[in-house]
Amino acid sequence: MVATFEPKTDYKVVGTRPIRHDGYDKVTGRAVYGADMKLPGLIWGVCVRSPHAHARIKSIDTSAAEAMDGVFAVITGADMPEAPSKLVDLGEGSVNFKWASNKLMADKKVIYKGQPVAAIAAVDRYTAEEAARKVVVKYEKLKSVTNVVDALAADAPIILEDLVGDDLGEDVTNTNMAEHIRHEFGDVEGAMAAAAHTIEREYNMEMVHQGYIEPHNATAVWDEEDRIKIWTSTQGAFPARTQIAGILQVDVSRVKVTPLEIGGGFGGKIPVYFEPIAALLSKKSHRPVKMVMERTAVFETTGPTPGGRMVIKLGADANGKLTAATADIWFEAGANPGALIGPAAMCVYAPYEIPNTRIDGWDVVVNKPKTAPYRAPGSPQVAFAMESAIDELCKEVGWDSMKFRSDNASREGTRRGDGVLFGKIGMEEVLEAAQASAHWKAPLGQPPAGKKRGRGIASGYWFNIGLKSSANLAVVSDGTVSLVEGSTDIGGSRAAMAMHVAEVLGIGAHDVRPTVGDTESVGYTDVTGGSRTTYATGYACWIAANNLVDELKKRVAILWDISLEDVGFNDGVFSSKAEAEKTISFKELAGKLGDLGGPATSTGSVDLESAGDGFGMHIVDVDIDPETGKTDIVRYTAVQDVGTAIHPSYVEGQLQGGAAQGIGWALNEEYFMTDDGAMANSSFLDYRMPTSLDLPSIDTVLVEVPNPLHPYGVRGVGETPICPPIPAIANAIANAVGVRLYKTPMNAGSILEALK
Amino acid sequence: MTTSSPSKVHVTTTINGQQHELLVPPYMSLLDTLRELIGLTGTKEGCLDGNCGACTVNLDGRVVDSCLVLGAEVNGKNVNTVEGMATPAGLHPLQQAFLEEAALQCGICTPGFLVAAKGLLDNEPSPSEGRIRHWLAGNLCRCTGYDKIVRAVQKASK
Amino acid sequence: MHPFAYVAPGTVDEAVAVLTKHGNRARPLAGGTDLLVKARANVWELDAVVDIKNIPELMSLSVNGGGISIGAGVPCYQVYGNSTIAAEYPAIVDGSSIIGGIQIQSRAGLGGNLCNAAPSGDGICPLIVHSAVAHIAGPKGKREVAVEDFCTGPGRTVLQPGELLVSIEVPKAPANSGAAYTRFIPRNEMDIAVAGVGVLVVLDSSGKKFKSARIALASVGPVPIFAKAAGESLAGKPVDDKSIAAAAALARKAASPITDMRGTIEQRRHLVEVLTSRMINKAAERARG
């Protein structure tokens, strides 16, 4: 569905900052997150995990574990239903049931370290863990590959023997290359040859993790009716249901997923991990089973976003206009295909208008955990390459890199690298706002003695997504409204949904009580991810609210005995078009519905093809100690076109949180792999996410270019802010100490090495 | 636990002002003691190795990671958790400030931050921003970038 | 985690008896910040933990004319919060205030840091440069071991089965002395040293010449390293860039690091040299008051 809307400014609720409805439970400890789930007779499940990254399973002996007191069920890969090789879209990413099933529980071969090979349910967690240690698995170790170059080498061990790769439409077998895609427009070679200035650089990045604080979890009951009830922390109850049913090979209607509060996801809680295993353990033990993942397994077996290799070439004319660009992108998918090279290709050139472009992308399987979406999946990587190359080109030629970005900025009608033409976008407004910001206007200032200071900028982009969402409304007799919507609330979205409804009905944000529904209480809703929730579910709420107004008009027509066409509604008040003095407020009407046809309810649902693109620019000042290589972030500003900010505090929070994750990615975070294919730093201690002491206050500038595709002009805001930080910091480091880094993390050791 | 397990430890402890008498498995963490034996699930598990602070509780006036304390160790001691911060009169000023400043997104780290911040303000009612950031370095938040958390603690300071 | 029993004796003798009975399958529990992590990861399989926090000697922090006595179970916050230590042993404050975050410092102490014997132990180098001595009780009685000789390998110490660290005795700091410890970490807190350096210098009355010095290095060898030659090189030398650089070069030589996820050999050697210079300067500044 596509409708367009004129921007408005005279909102009553939109743009205010009410306290989030779920906040009270969350600051008092009452909110029930996945791990807090309790059921009568609940027992605990744990997994037995592979110590090897690549090995054949010779045998599994579970007898000692099964013999232990307090152990109720033991399962292995043999207990997993045979799932067909079928690709299903999950909104942000997709799933192949056969591989997803094998990823959760290995059958004959393990393909990443930590892969479950058996699972145990026991009376409590400690007993289950003890029993897990008693399972004896014999392996035949195989050579592992953990980067794209090794995985594509002629003598590379083949990870998935049955993988048929797609090389620009041609089938390839005996390969770790799952997919090769290409987008080409214009005369790239000719334009590159004619360019006055060119630059070609290679960039490499290590895999990183979303780093949510709440570990994965699931509680399952497989009941006597063969219905499977799941309680879990998920970014999408409905896509979780799709995956669980597909992996367990049951009809979706047999699975009910109740989403509990979720402690962060950033894309990583779209795939399911424990849900099908807990269900099978419940079936076998005939008891409710809860599983909570240990942190090491969270790092070793869930989440990460691809590292990889990128080669970028840019051509520009003598006037500083980009004329040609090529990008070759190799991303590591992890142990199953799906590195999201498609989104990377969509994003790489998006901030700029370039007439002649080519993109080649390769999705490469390696012996690492299967990657999952992570905040603008694919875009931060290509932003690192593109925005670093732009800065270096400008430096070589002597151009001002801010002006260069402005001169080449995308606008309405610009063609993206994959061929899509932009609608109304705010890239130019973002660049203007960045240049008008206090940070950009401030002089760099002097660093402390012994340190060197530099400033960097970079743009970032995410296309945002629409997809399916649903909402239900019911009027309560005291003049409030209950709202049930399908998007799990990962960062304040209940408030934004309620505000959509309140704005339409002319009531306060707290007159709407939002609830996140389970899969049997509201219509299908896609994941909370892709920066779609406020846009698409908000849109569904807006439709439901308008439908509710239509329903209430009928009741007013009965009340006043006038025709429906004569009932007007404005700002929470119904009126008679015939008699101007005749009015009744929404609140008054709510109390009279008993005599006017009974309860008033409505629904809204959407399936949105496009969403309205999001552009941002970040400015960062760094201090570097040249003797140690240590970088301190001393000032940071995130500028972004957010369309219309429904709840500005949570929009600012998205910009700040995205920037913080990008800063961690830029400086310290990585999967540090051993030669054996193990992640050496699988703890919060050694993974080194930023603490409160590692970040300055992150200033935000909200640019509001309303999105014509949404009734209030909303654009997704969550993804874009993780894209600029990595190149902005690379550019700031180059500015501070004169060395250019081409690999992340840009940690102290690599800066020291570059300074030699 | 199984029949061969070491015997449970008799623990008398005061949790959020209420006395509890418990039989705790000797290897059970204070975190699990609170969550599994008493049902206080406001204290969260994030890493089980003292590197995220989600399980922060106050033990006899000091903030600690409850995943690195045994339940058996709190015999005769005072434990305070996030559930003990609000009173019938209302939220603790820190809780109110966290709501007003939008200092939480997913909220999983929030109980740990609140208990840690209270441990600071109980002894230092007017800390500087630098002091707040230093004190809270043992609590990881992945959603907010800390800015709004620090502002909320400043707002609740005197 | 293997299920273990919990024992909380009230005297050193009782603790030693329990530890002796269980041999390697029992460990003293002080702050628990290393023990419970290792037990949970099955690095240690224990039948019993011996909570030493009810033993008065192990929990006392006392100052006497001759120096200070830090009970093995005294947590870091009490160490760096002690006014005498703050005034006279700033390197010990430097080290004890960076072990973990506030939550860890509420429980973890220098005794546990020493017994954990991590090459990166931030509490150990300050004790070495202050010539601290570990007081040990065991089935065969009491003995004393200099802190620089206490660690014998990563996670290994001189403690024999049944033996218990009772206290760390730190002698009075010499007149005109100053000490400092720092480490290099990628983050600003909550991190493990890539390299760490502790320095104690004694200046002559003019404050322009070194009388003696002790230097210790963390995270650049299998144990915290007492870089004796580097410290001794300063004796009699003027407090200037040349003698400091020479000592730093010797400290670099004393380092025998490995390459791992936290840093490379070359990076660590370089950091030792940089940090040694910085800490000599800082210690000298502190010595001059």
Largest sheet of chain A: 8 strands, mixed
Count of individual helical segments of chain A = 21
| CATH class categorisation of the largest domain in chain B | Alpha Beta
CATH level-two architecture of the domain at 378-464 and 612-755 in chain A:
2-Layer Sandwich
Residue share in β-strands of chain A: 25-35%
Helix % of chain B is 25-40%
- Largest sheet, spatial ordering of strands of chain A: 10-9-11-19-18-17-12-31
CATH-assigned homologous superfamily of the domain at 378-464 and 612-755 in chain A: Aldehyde oxidase/xanthine dehydrogenase, molybdopterin binding domain
What is the assembly state of the chains in this entry? Answer: heterotrimer
Short description:
The complex is a heterotrimer of chains A (756), B (158) and C (289). Chain A is of the alpha+beta class and 756 residues long.
Q: What does this molecule look like?
A:
The complex is a heterotrimer of chains A (756), B (158) and C (289). Among the domains of chain A are: 23-31 and 465-608, Aldehyde oxidase/xanthine dehydrogenase, molybdopterin binding domain (Aldehyde Oxidoreductase, domain 4, 2-Layer Sandwich); 378-464 and 612-755, Aldehyde Oxidoreductase, domain 4. In chain A, 28% of the residues lie in helices and 26% in strands. In chain A, the strands form seven sheets. Chain A has an eight-stranded mixed beta sheet, sandwiched between helices. In chain A, strands 3-7-1-16-13-14-15 form a seven-stranded mixed beta sheet. Chain A has a four-stranded mixed beta sheet with strand order 20-28-29-30. The longest helix of chain A has 28 residues, at 533-560. The mean pLDDT of chain A is 97. Chain B contains five helices and five strands. Chain B is globular. Chain B has helices at residues 30-38, 93-100, 110-123, 129-135, 147-156; strands at 9-15, 18-24, 56-59, 62-65, 78-80. The N and C termini of chain B lie far apart (48 Å). A five-stranded mixed beta sheet of chain B has the order 2-1-5-3-4, with helices on both faces. Chain B folds into two domains: 9-83, Beta-grasp domain (Ubiquitin-like (UB roll), Roll), CATH 3.10.20; 93-156, DNA polymerase, domain 1, CATH 1.10.150.120. The longest helix of chain B has 14 residues, at 110-123. Helices cover 30% and strands 16% of the residues of chain B. Chain B is of the alpha+beta class. With 289 residues, chain C is of the alpha+beta class. Chain C has three domains: 5-51, 2-Layer Sandwich (Uridine Diphospho-n-acetylenolpyruvylglucosamine Reductase, domain 2); 57-171, Uridine Diphospho-n-acetylenolpyruvylglucosamine Reductase, domain 3; 177-288, Enolase-like, domain 1. Chain C is 33% helix and 25% strand. In chain C, the strands form four sheets. In chain C, strands 4-5-10-6-7 form a five-stranded antiparallel beta sheet. A four-stranded antiparallel beta sheet of chain C has the order 11-12-13-14. The longest helix of chain C is centred in the C-terminal third of the chain and has 24 residues, at 265-288. Chain C is globular and about 55 Å long. The termini of chain C are far apart. The model of chain C has no long low-confidence stretch (mean pLDDT 97). The chains are: A alpha+beta (756), B alpha+beta (158), C alpha+beta (289). Chains in contact: A-B, A-C, B-C. The interface between A and B is large, with 65 and 62 residues.
